[in-house]
Amino acid sequence: MAERETWTTRVGFIFAAVGSAVGLGNIWSFPFQTGQNGGAAFLLVYLAVVFVIGFPAMLMEFVIGRRSKQNPISAFRELGFENWSFAGTLGVLGSAVTLAFYSVIGGWVLSYIVGSATGTYFGNVAGFFGTVSAGPLAVGTHALFMGLTVAIVAFGIQGGIERATKVMVPAILVLLLGLAAWGFTLEGATAGYEYYLSPDFGYLADNLTSIVPSAVGQAFFTLSLGFSVMIAYASYLGSDDSLPADGSAIVVINTLVALLAGFVVFPVLLSIGVEPGSGGVGTAFVSLAGAFAQIPGGELLGVGFFIVLLLAALSSAISLLETPVSYVVDNYDYDRKVVATVLGGTIFAAGIPTALSTATLGWYNDIVFNLLLPLVVLLFALFVGWVAFDESVDELAQGSSLGTGFTALWLWWVRLVIPAAIGLTLVLGVQDLALKAQLIESAVVLG
Ligand code: PHE
What we know:
Elements: H1 10-21, H2 24-36, H3 40-68, H4 74-78, H5 85-118, H6 125-133, H7 136-153, H8 156-185, H9 189-197, H10 201-206, H11 208-222, H12 229-234, H13 243-271, H14 281-294, H15 298-331, H16 336-356, H17 358-387, H18 389-397, H19 403-446
Helix pairs in contact: 1-8, 1-13, 1-15, 2-13, 3-11, 3-13, 3-17, 3-18, 3-19, 5-7, 5-15, 5-16, 5-17, 6-14, 7-15, 7-16, 8-13, 8-15, 9-13, 11-17, 11-19, 13-14, 14-15, 15-16, 16-17, 17-18, 17-19, 18-19
The structure holds phenylalanine.
């Protein structure tokens, strides 16, 4: 079997991990969640959750990956706890299911790049969304997006993922900064910033029990946790650099990108007086496209924005595909290119139903987000905190100058605080799913 690859440099690993973290979650969900949940007040909660829960949770996946130098399924066997492999398997499954619909949204973004350049949607924003989001066109763009993902992963860690993200991540940052500067010049800038950032502490206080769990879920998702992606990426770390240092760089950059996205989205929306209403992913596409259709220079602004979205989605999608690919490549003597193509094709097929119906897409998303993701992070926390804690603490200390005080604190955090936070998220997530199922049932009854 060929020798296992490693990242060429530490920066290569950080870029790849940032590429995974920065995605639709940052540029799409984050600004809208903030706007809808009390602006700057929500932001404070969210930032606290990202650093207090997300960051230590990221270190859990890092230690499993770097210690074992194996894919997320074999990692547990390598560490001597084969009966925990199911946790990694669930994570890999989560990656595959997420990629199945994530790629569909990536396909929408492709359509919107073309639509912005040609002005196709300018006359009929809602109609355009309907055409590109569900149906034959959506299946086609889903295939295209998956093809791009496969093409990068096929070339491996150094030649594929590292090389691609070294270009994509800086491009995202530069373009987004440019767009935010443009946003500053728009008529709606002040109103946009106000909507985004004015703190509504009253709203926050009233809704804290629903906001905190959804902030926990969002924090895991945006940091790419719970799908074993960070186990896979950390398994390619050759040298013993400081995991807390790398992790904090990743968390900080990821947060800055999310914040910056709000400085683009809201000036654009408010410049045409659109109240960024509630509603899912689709509503956001429609209202933003509606704004590009009216702003002077909207074609260019739209193309720039959707290119950022494409790069962000693609650099996340490759990490989602790498996770299952790494399992097969580690364990069987198949060529990586073949493995990436076959798995990419299978996941593409699994995503077709979501390319035919946005409601189905919503279900995939809810199941992953509310159920699978918190469950897997919980399993990792139990494993790292209560099962393989000697190995984990030892691995975290490798290359870090933070000392035993930090590792001890981290261990107890993993043992107690993270499971408690997830327990809360799971209970509320299941409630949410049950509520939706009930609503559908009563709608069926009502005919
Ligand atoms: N972090 C990505 C985003 O914010 C999503 C993602 C989750 C990617 C898990 C990989 C793994 O869009």
